[in-house]
Amino acid sequence: MIITKIETFPLRIPFRPDTRAAASAWGDKGLQVADSLLVKVTTDQGLEGWGETGFRAVPMEQLAIDNLIAPLCIGRDATQIGLKHRRLPKTHLSLKQLVLMRDMVSK
Question: Is the terminal CB of the chain with fewer CB neighbours within 10 Å at N or C?
Answer without folding.
Answer: C
